[in-house]
Amino acid sequence: MTIKPKLTTFDLTMIVVSLVIGIGIFRTPAMVASSTRTPLLFLAAWGLGGLISLMGALTFAEIGARFPAPGAFYKVVAVNAGSVPAFLLNWTNVLMVNGAGGAAVAIIGAEYLTPLFLPERLRTQLAVQLTAAGLMLVLLVINYLGIKTGAWAQNVLSLLKVVLIGGLALAGLAAGAPAATSGALPFERPWWVGLAIGFISVFYTYGGYQCTINFGADIRGAKRNMPRAILAGIAVIIACYLLINAAYLKVLGLPGVAGAKLVAAETARALFGPGGALLVSAAIFLSAMGFLNVTLMQIPRAYYAMAEDRTLPPFFRRVNPRTQTQEYGLLFLGGVILVLIFFLGTFEKIVSYVMFLDSLAIAVVAAMVFALRRRARREGTVYDGYRVPFYPVLPAVFVVFLVGISLNVLLTQTREALIGAVMLATGLPAFYGMRRWYSGRRPKP
């Protein structure tokens, strides 16, 4: 059963927002401040991150317009570079990390929700896990009802969290006398090394928009509307990130940002007193739920492309013709997340293991813009859709930068990067095992 387009440009714009704005913006600024050590480098890291992400958005906008296929993050590599690299690049993220990441985000959302309705004596780890499982089941039911129902929930969650983040940022910038923003921390390493290390966290916080191309078959008029949604979404994200980090800096000063375990909570407390924690709890809860909901929406589309390429069992291709839901893929992903809610390690450890590979994966998929243009020239195909400006310089700079991020992780977090590489290597027997299974199946008469 094929996937039919049901999403509007606005739906996809809100998907872009929630793919990127998760819980990172509430945590990573402290890590960035600790690495950059000065207000100027701190803001420069976020500004540079926005610029690089804009380059990426422009590049992926053309890929999405030229290749509007379900699970395009996988399929564009499989078609242009082969199934083996496509499978390996998606193996850790799609089949392993997204389940663990979804469970971790569900738990974090539950941690900020339970204080709002449970007395302190009942706020046990089990209560948090049960709340996370309950939230997961609600989102699972919403998405099971159909792609449009999931998109409606996504629109509400995305708009609310943008409003809350924007409100906190504007309140901080409009506050009275600023904190000692000129204060800096003593350098423990050369400034450029600190900036490079801090940028790992910045780039992670900006990441996610590239997965929008998985909805290539879901959006109406993909050739025209996919670029519009990606660019509109990244513009909202850059504005939110620059404003909120400027507000953090003004209210707390750089030493305060670096020393804050949850910088958004400290900022809200400084602005609104103890009641500010309620605002931050709501923002983090909505961000967590938005990210979890969009994960349930987009990962089954990657399963679809992998099953189509005979690297996952064929039932992952089944689509409900009325709701456009991949019921088996959705239930599989939901089941993995529900199980991991009760058996999960730390999210930070998982992120460290895959950041090296994640940047490489994005670099490879971004480089497919060159392959798509070469194929169009070779086949004499006339293309009148969106084109990335300043081609080939802009996408080349983006790809080189991503490779640099991976090398940065390899040099500064060598152990975690090597563990990630081992996780990647486990995909090879899985790939060849699946292909062998397919070759042994008898075709139906």
Please tag this protein with its features.
445 residues; 74% helix; mainly alpha; single chain; Amino acid/polyamine transporter I; 17 helices
Describe the structure.
This protein has 445 residues and is mainly α. It has one domain: Amino acid/polyamine transporter I (Up-down Bundle). The protein contains 17 helices and no strands. Helix 2 crosses helix 9. The longest helix is centred in the middle third of the chain and has 38 residues. The chain is globular, with a radius of gyration of 22 Å. The two termini are 19 Å apart.
Residue fraction in strands: under 5%
Looking at the structure, what is the overall shape? globular
Can you identify the CATH class?
Mainly Alpha
Task: Figure out the total of helices.
Answer: 17
| Number of domain units | 1
The CATH topology assignment is Amino acid/polyamine transporter I
Q: State the share of residues found in helices, binned by percent.
A: over 70%
- CATH-defined architecture: Up-down Bundle
Oligomer: single chain
Compressed to H and E, one letter per element, the order equals HHHHHHHHHHHHHHHHH
C-alpha termini separation? 19 Å
* CA-atom Rg in angstroms: 22 Å
Mean pLDDT: 86
Helix/sheet category: mainly alpha
For this structure, what is the CATH homologous superfamily? Amino acid/polyamine transporter I
- What summary fits the major beta sheet? none
Low-pLDDT runs of 5+ residues are none
Structural topology:
Elements: H1 9-20, H2 28-36, H3 39-66, H4 72-81, H5 83-117, H6 125-144, H7 147-173, H8 191-206, H9 222-259, H10 263-272, H11 276-308, H12 327-341, H13 347-366, H14 368-379, H15 393-412, H16 414-425, H17 427-440
Helix pairs in contact: 1-7, 1-9, 1-11, 2-3, 2-8, 2-9, 3-8, 3-9, 3-15, 4-5, 4-11, 5-6, 5-11, 5-12, 5-13, 5-16, 6-7, 6-11, 6-12, 7-9, 7-11, 8-15, 9-10, 10-11, 11-12, 13-15, 13-16, 15-16
